[in-house]
Each structure stands twice: as structure tokens, then as C-alpha cells.
Amino acid sequence: MSTRASHAWLADFQRAFGEVLRTPLDASSGSLRARTDRYAPQLTAAVGDAPSCSGRARLAVYNRQYWFRLLTTMQTSWPLTARLLGLFFFNLHAQRFLLQQPPRHFDLRVVTLGFDVYLARSMGAAEVDIGPGEKPVPRAALLEAATLDAAFARVFYAPAEPRFDPLQLSGPLTDCKLKSSAAYARVRERWPLAELRCTLTDARSERAVALPEPHAHAQAWALFRNERGVAQVRLAPLQLRLLELLEQHPLGHALAQLEAEAEPAARPALPEHTRVWLAQGVACGFWTGLDR
Predict the structure, then answer these.
(1) H or E element: which one contains 165?
(2) Closest C-alpha among 260, 117, 243, 248 to residue 188
(3) In angstroms, rounded to a whole number, what is the distance separating the alpha carbons of residues 12 and 265?
(4) What angle do CA 212, 213, 215 make, to 5 degrees?
(5) If the chain, 292 residues long, is cut into consecutive pieces of 10 residues, what is the mean pLDDT of each piece?
(6) What is the rounded distance in angstroms from the CA atom of residue 255 to the CA atom of residue 260?
(7) Cβ-based neighbours of 171, under 8 Å, separated by 6 or more
(8) Which pLDDT value is given to residue 12?
(9) Do residues 76 and 198 touch, judged by C-beta distance below 8 A?
């Protein structure tokens, strides 16, 4: 065989092998299995049989490992979403997502990005079926869980930045706007999902975890990175509003706007509350500096 012919043969083999790797696993039996009947006959013939197994069975090893590696990465990146769906149904959604958005990056974390957008687009029903005997999960709760998982990932993988230290600054700060850190995010929730996510760290079960009852009123959390990973702190309603205003206005304007919006009964304690909230934000690294 000439060099040109060898290169052509190798390119065809690699193309066919890649198609085998990405052959979707079949879930009709209740577990994910390789569909060896879908493999190209030319490739199985080229691989050949071994004494203990056929060429198709040999290729199925690679097919399964390709998908199991990706699905495990998806479960790790979207742990709350995975456990609310149960791992079997989560894997079905994850496989469809990866078929629509094939991996094109060496970093598997990057491969998982956009799954929350995919779920919002693909889940049309108000409730999502997660199997016999299981209570359907509200679509809104699943999308809220995906948003929370995505926020955790953004904060964890955010680039390192300097922390804001007001003690090193001189002059009035009221006319300055705070710069938010990339390793900080805020999330709202109607179900107690942020606390639920913390309980899943060492979970091994493949079954869906029960969705807690919704809050009487929506809650908000701040996520921030520290030396142990991603931490979270619950935000009081006026604290949340202050953080929103600080992203839009200079410090003095934000404080004045917050006071104008606060109920009269809350105003006497507002100066002390805002002092505590700002100190907490500095300590947790919500900001990196000032825009003067």
C-alpha cells in the first residue's frame, strides 16, 4: 500500500471509529446499552474478532466508555439537576444535549456549558416525568436547579482577581462605583435548592432526590469563592436590593436609593444594616475595586 493510500485508509478508519464512539447508547431496556448493530460493517471487519469476543463487542467497550466519561462529567458539573431528575433520566437529557452540541474542546468542563440553556429549550411541559412511582418535577424547579448549578460553576472557575480593600484607599468613596468580582454571583430561588445542593456532596444514590416544598416567599443567596471552594450566604431582601443597586450606581447614590425604597419602619436600622452588609461583601470578596 502506498503512503497516499495508507493515509486515506487511516483517515477513513478514524472517521468510522469516531462514529462508533458517538453512537448513542440505547435506553429502551431501562439501562444504557451499546447498540452494536449500528456499527459500520466495514469497521467491525477491520477490527476483527478476538478469541473471547467479537469485533462488535470490542468496539462497544470504547463506545460505552466514551459516553460514560462524558455523562459522569455532566453529573459532576450539574449535581443538583442530576439528582432532581434521577441519574437515568438525567443521562438521557445529557446524551441528547451532547449529540446536539458535540464535544469540541479538550477541557471537559467546557463541553458541559450550555446545558441549562438546552433544558430551558427542550423541556416544554409544566412538569417533567422522572419515571414510574416518582412524583413529576415542576419544570420551573428543574430550570432553577440548572441555573444554580451553572452559577456555582461560574464562581468556582472564575479567574483570580485582587480583592477590594477599602483600607488602602483614600478620599470619599460615595462617588465611586464598586467593581463586582467574577467569583461572586447572586441567585434567587422559589424552592430551597441552595441548601439541598449542599446535602448532595457525598450522595451515591442514582434515584431522584425528593424536591422540598417551595418557600413561602422567594429567597436569594450570594455565592462566592473562598479557600474551601464556593460558599453561600442568604441575603435579606434589602441586602439583595442594595447589591443590585451597587451594580448600577455609585455607592452614595445606591445608599440613597435604598433608603428611599425602604419601608419607613426599616429606615432607623438601615445605616447599621448597610454597614454590616458592606463589611460582609468586602470580607467575602464580592468586589475587586472601584470605578472612580
Answers:
(1) none
(2) 243
(3) 75
(4) 115
(5) 71 81 92 90 78 84 94 95 95 96 89 95 91 90 97 95 84 86 97 94 78 96 95 97 96 96 96 96 95 73
(6) 9
(7) none
(8) 74
(9) no
Number of other CB atoms surrounding residue 115 within 10 Å: 22
Instruction: Evaluate whether 209 touches 84 at the Cβ level (below 8 Å).
Output: yes
Question: Is there a contact between 210 and 84 (Cβ–Cβ < 8 Å)?
Answer: no
Contact 228, 201 (CB under 8 A): no
Helix-helix angle 87-100:115-122, to 10 degrees: 100
| End-to-end Cα spacing for the chain | 71
180 bridge partner residues: 287
Rounded to whole angstroms, the Cα distance separating 116 from 80 reads 12
Nearest to 185 by CA among 215, 218, 227, 157: 157
The widest CA-to-CA distance across the chain, in whole angstroms, is 88
Please list the residues that pair with 224 across neighbouring strands: 184, 231
In the chain, where the domains are located: 78-291
Distance CA 71, CA 89 (A): 11
Checking DSSP bridges between strand 137-138 and strand 177-180, what pairing results, if any? unpaired
Rounded distance between C-alpha atoms, residue 280 and residue 286, angstroms: 9
Question: At 163, phi and psi to the nearest 5?
Answer: -90, 145
C-alpha cell recorded at residue 153: 460553576
Q: What does pTM read for this prediction?
A: 0.88
Residue 249: φ, ψ to 5°: -135, 160
Q: How far apart are CA 42 and CA 39, in angstroms?
A: 9
Tell me if 223 sits within 8 A of 232, measured CB to CB: yes
